[in-house]
């Protein structure tokens, strides 16, 4: 079954998508400073309602809005949100907006306490007694973000005590 374009999840106009993205960008920029000052910054009710009307997590919601916004503004929107969001969320937002998805096939040796959030394909001990773990992570991402995600996946496994990590990236 062909994938449905992300922009179809937005029922508003391109102009309203752009306005909601601007409001969300302002909120994301102001929230850390407000927390430092002890203020409880909240989204306006209409803003929160329209965000919740889009299925998926926050990064997917932003990607849908970016895909629904005017084409002339998309590159600037992606750059502005990529500067604020964590790498994985930014990659998801960009991938949803562009309609691209990548699969990361991961093989980990060692790391006895490492349990990824993804579905594990193989988890066993090799003949040398070292734990072998294999899983696949599918993420909407653009090509630039896929490399950053690959590095983040490797870093995550090494921080959990892996002896070796192999990540293969392929278009899904």
Q: Please, could you describe this protein's structure?
A:
The chain has helices at residues 14-36, 45-52, 58-68, 74-84, 87-98, 143-159, and strands at 101-110, 120-125, 131-140, 162-171. It is an alpha+beta fold. β2 (120-125) and β3 form a beta hairpin. The longest helix has 23 residues, at 14-36. The model has no long low-confidence stretch (mean pLDDT 84).
Output the keywords:
alpha+beta, four-stranded antiparallel beta sheet, 172 residues, 48% helix, 6 helices, 4 strands
Strand order of the largest sheet: 2-3-1-4
Q: Mean of residue pLDDT?
A: 84
Form type? elongated
Proportion of residues in helical segments: 40-55%
| Structural class by sheet pairing and helices | alpha+beta
The Cα radius of gyration reads 19 Å
Largest sheet: 4 strands, antiparallel
Report the uncertain regions. none
Q: Give the topology string: H per helix, E per strand.
A: HHHHHEEEHE
Number of helices: 6
Straight-line N-to-C gap: 14 Å
Q: Number of DSSP strands?
A: 4
What percent strand? 15-25%
The quaternary state of the protein chains shown equals single chain
